[in-house]
Write a structure and sequence with these properties.
alpha/beta, seven-stranded mixed beta sheet, 6 helices, 14 strands
Amino acid sequence: MRFTFLGTGTSAGVPVLGCTCKVCRSTDPRDFRYRSAGLLETDTTRVLIDSGPDIRMQLMHRPFKKIDGVLLTHIHYDHVAGIDDLRGFCKFGDIDIYANQGTVDALRVTMPYCFTEKLYPGVPLLKLHAISPAQEGTIGDISWQAVEVMHDWLPILAYRFGSFAYITDMKTINEQSRQLLQGVQTLVVNALRFERPHHSHMLVADAIDFARSIGAQRTYLTHLTHEIGFHDEANSKLPPDVRFAYDGLTIEV
């Protein structure tokens, strides 16, 4: 399988609107960060993880092929606001969307025109599937397991795909969920910034400690703010097995 980081930014993205800091003015494309999302692919299956407000541009220059499923982490705007932009992919058939019950319920409220008994022409054709913590499933030839983590007080979902796991917006995790992630070889996990604790996100040191606790062999940090700094300089502060991801990076998993 291969995983592409479609976006590695936090809710404000980088550059931040109105900010004139050196990172937001950088000409290095690795310092430009759309809102966090990812694309997991095999030769026959494509799975999208989250569909935020930048998804149209994130997918614009990628092959226009069927999306076999969408795995949502949680209902926050920066992770779901682009679901309507997936309507073009409905030419291949209805799009299956998987999320926890709270996210499914909220989508029915925030996008009611997609889930009425009688749909008007042109709306995206979406099939919502509520999934539970620790639930396993398959989309095409990709097997997944949901893992519940906490985004401050909000339960959200991470996903494990065999030896690969994707986690965003985590602040804490209970021991039962941590056990579900033991043995992951490649980990993608959120790390907001180096300093200044946040009520609902881990910092870089927290993310590294977590990666060590589950035995990850290589770790990519995502959901980053402009406070991370320039890409190369920031990476030089990390241990060799931990790297900052950047938009467009593709890894084999």
